[in-house]
Specification:
This protein is 49% helix and 6% strand. It is of the alpha/beta class. It has three domains: 15-96 and 378-400, Serine Threonine Protein Phosphatase 5, Tetratricopeptide repeat, CATH 1.25.40; 118-215, DNA Cyclobutane Dipyrimidine Photolyase, subunit A, domain 3; 255-370, 3-Layer(aba) Sandwich (Rossmann fold). It has a five-stranded parallel β-sheet. Bound molecules: flavin-adenine dinucleotide (FAD).
Length: 401
Amino acid sequence: MTAMLLSSLSFPPSRGAGLQRLSEFVPLAGAPYAAGRNTDYGPDQPATVSRLSPYLRYRLITEEETVSAVLQHHSYEAAEKFIQEVLWRTYWKGWLAMRPEVWQRYEREYDVLKEKYRDNPAIRAAEQGTTGIEGFDDWAKELVQTGYLHNHARMWFASIWIFTLKLPWVLGAAFFLRHLLDADAASNTLSWRWVAGLQTPGKTYLATTENIARFTNGRFFPKGLALSAEAHVESPLAAPKTLSTLKPLESDAQSILLLHADDLHPELIPLKKENVRAVFFVNDRYLFWGDKAHEFIAASYDDLKNRVAYQYDLPLISLSTGNTNQLIEYAKSKAIKQIVTPYAPEGLAYNWLHSFETELSTAGLALVQYRRIWDEIFWPYATKGFFSFKEKVPSILRELV
Ligand SMILES: Cc1cc2nc3c(=O)[nH]c(=O)nc-3n(C[C@H](O)[C@H](O)[C@H](O)COP(=O)(O)OP(=O)(O)OC[C@H]3O[C@@H](n4cnc5c(N)ncnc54)[C@H](O)[C@@H]3O)c2cc1C
């Protein structure tokens, strides 16, 4: 019998809750995870997977501290499977950061397809879980109700959406983004592309009845699934870019810290406490694809406020994207020139930060994005497939954690 994490499928919105889940999971990150991680026991059952993704997605806890906690308890070899899964997240982010074109293609195609398929009955049935396909319908409802799906369920769902129902993958990916608590441009888009045969050109993922029955512990035995999966094709992608060069952060300059949901880890920004004059937090609904994710972050506000007060002795100021003058006026009144913000990868915060940067620059202020050492070191290796990336992992970790 595989050991399981006795946490129910709820995600209390705080860093403390993420750390608590991590410490409960760490003893199970070795053999129990490796043996049981592919089985989806259902939303009301204990899991062999960690269910840490909403905390990792917004960096309420970081990849680095997660891997480091696991390595304090296990050797790399013993926890290799789990560590590699965490590094998949890092890999996808690095891969997309060097190929922003892939995200831009997704956004363009989504704009076209959402109009074309507006009120389409097949899309509605798939999203409402009324297709009559066992398992698939249950996952559609589970996703909408809980904001989470097991990795294997995400793979089966995407495969059935694309190859059995023959619906556009882009609309399936958008459905996930609207409902997942951990909705993430890189992990989601690239995983859907992988199932469709675009990410590893020609290689698709076909969900089968037997595999679903086996790894749902016999809960589902769907009939009528596609028996083959023909890879989608696209026009060739440009070669990967190098990571964007960022303005240097002046750690001794008087600064304003601007937080956003792509990285809620203000503790590890390399600024001296006495140089941080104010901390703003931007959290508008339109910076999220879905309500659930927005509610999760909105509900973590008090927790973030306490952490900022502890770290910087400052109140946390809520900034609306419709009233950014509040920040600009504050900076001018204190003669502050540097606005520091954690790096935002491709996505909604990224888009907004780029337009805000122009606004700041007109006001004579510099927006300095800070990319974490973890990302700086790992992302440049995401030029090829995951298997060449993962070979670098053990030696980098020996240096880093
Ligand atoms: C079609 C599809 C869409 C997906 N969309 C998202 C998404 O929007 N956001 C997201 O965070 N993950 C996404 N994933 C990846 C993965 O399914 C989830 O990260 C994982 O299920 C989260 O559950 P967990 O925390 O219990 O994972 P665990 O198995 O406990 O893994 C630990 C951590 O490793 C990372 N991780 C694990 N598997 C993957 C993976 N395959 N790819 C990237 N990171 C991984 C996550 O941060 C996760 O929290 C998607 C996968 C598929 C197949």
